């Protein structure tokens, strides 16, 4: 038996578990949103962070990375135990079809596990729901937890999506709004960039790029 897990947040750049294969691709009919509270990694119960979850959205696609774990039941068990501890704020595990770039007619892998959350504040205590862009940016700019700043989570996700060649416009917009709150000069991108991170388009100056911290060992 083989275990596949789809990552769309910090798992993209920092999986944290032993895996055998990483494949860039997407899932259909979901979009990334920053509607979930994190109180033990990038925030606290008093000042929760905002981290991403998935929202069902017909026709949407969400890019990320699928991780394959081979090697038998024990290796799979250890990976799932780690992920369930790390993704403790997510109250759902769904099975989805995963598609590779350039092959959209048929899934590359079926039955891929993805951690999601119930979009209901009554049944799911970690669900924050949507908020105005400025309010989300203010919360992300100031939240801090045992694993670091909430803003670093967002900036690392922005960079990770750029690195795999599939930026998320919502992530870019939110990251730039956080930079405004922080008073950082310039923005990383006003438009979607295409290409590898070390090749800058001519309209982007080097001074606009901000040094990002290294990934944390445990995150959500």
Number of helices: 4
Cα distance, first to last residue?
26 Å
The count of strands amounts to: 7
Low-confidence stretches: 187-217
Order of helices and strands: EEEHEEHEEHH
This entry's quaternary arrangement is: single chain
Structural class: alpha+beta
Radius of gyration: 17 Å
Residue share in helix: 10-25%
Mean pLDDT, rounded to whole units? 87
Strand content: 25-35%
The order of strands across the largest sheet is: 1-3-2-4-5
Largest sheet: 5 strands, antiparallel
**What general outline do the C-alpha atoms trace?**
globular
Could you characterize what this model shows?
With 220 residues, the protein is of the alpha+beta class. It has 4 helices and 7 strands. It has helices at residues 73-86, 133-142, 150-163, 169-182; strands at 3-7, 21-38, 49-69, 92-100, 109-116, 144-145, 148-149. The strands form 2 sheets. It has a 5-stranded antiparallel beta sheet. Strands 6-7 form a two-stranded antiparallel sheet. Helix 2 crosses helix 4 and helix 3 runs antiparallel to helix 4 (169-182). The longest helix is centred in the middle third of the chain and has 14 residues, at 73-86. It is globular and about 45 Å long. Residues 187-217 have low confidence and may be disordered.
Which helices and strands occur, and which strands form pairs?
Layout lengths: L2 E5 L13 E18 L10 E21 L3 H14 L5 E9 L8 E8 L16 H10 L1 E2 L2 E2 H14 L5 H14 L38
Antiparallel strand pairs: 1-3, 2-3, 2-4, 4-5, 6-7
Helix pairs in contact: 2-4, 3-4
